[in-house]
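Key result, reporting period 2: structure in, sequence out.
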């Protein structure tokens, strides 16, 4: 199993910056892609950014050019640097790790989640 612990978040003014960090522990050798998702109350969780073990990144269109994701494989951490924040970036942000592993005889991709951290951007 994999455990994820997030840090960062809080209240920031529009135009400001925030840095979210996530540390993985447990069977980290199983982790392929890590990323960040966000969710508003009553809405589906949506991808913000992801990064593969090899460093390939993917961003939601709404954050391209403003957010940057990075990863330290040695320390099993992933960081989301958020710049030029807007009020519409106000969400709970969740760290995510995707593994490839066997559960019994079945090999599959599994998602692990952090506890979530609130980011609030005031106008």
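The corresponding designed sequence is given below.
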């Amino acid at each position: 199993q994999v455990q994820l612990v997030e840090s960062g978040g809080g209240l920031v003014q529009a135009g400001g910056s925030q840095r979210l960090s996530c540390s993985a522990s447990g069977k980290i050798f199983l982790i392929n892609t890590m990323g960040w998702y966000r969710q508003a109350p009553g809405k589906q969780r949506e991808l913000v950014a992801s990064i593969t073990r090899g460093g390939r990144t993917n961003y939601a269109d709404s954050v391209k050019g403003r957010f940057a994701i990075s990863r330290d494989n040695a320390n099993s951490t992933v960081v989301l640097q958020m710049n030029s924040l807007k009020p519409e970036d106000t969400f709970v942000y969740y760290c995510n790790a995707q593994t490839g592993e066997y559960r019994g005889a079945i090999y599959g991709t599994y998602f692990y989640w952090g506890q979530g951290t609130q980011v609030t951007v005031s106008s």
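The CA atoms of residues 99 and 120 lie 30 Å apart. DSSP finds no helices and eleven strands in the chain. This case is discussed further under Risks and Mitigation.
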